Amino acid sequence: MHKILPNQLIPVITQKPGETNKTELESREALIAVISDKNPLSAWRPIPQYRRLRDMLKKRKINQLYSQTRLNTQSNTAVYLASSPKKDSSCFEKLSFAGKLVKHAMADKPRNLTLYVADSSNTDSEILAKSLISALIAYQFKMPEYKSSKSQSPRLKKICIAGLKNRIDISRTIAVAEANNLARWLTALPPNKLDAENYVEAIKYLSKKNNWQFEFYNQEKLKQLNAGAFLAVSQGNPIPDAGIVRLSYRPKKNMPPEVALVGKGIIFDTGGTNLKPFRSMLDMHHDMAGSAVALATIQAITDLKAPIAVDCWLAITENLLSNQSYKSRDIVTASNGTKIEVIHTDAEGRMILADTLSLAGKEKPEVILDFATLTGSCVTAITDRYSGAFSNKNTLNELVIHAGVNSGARVWPFPLDKDFDEDLKSDIADVLQCSTGGSGDHIQAARFLKRFVPKSTPWIHLDLSSASRSGGLAHIPTSVTGFGVRFAIELLINHLDDLKSARGDSSG
Question: Are 89 and 97 in contact, with CB atoms under 8 Å apart?
Answer without folding.
Answer: yes
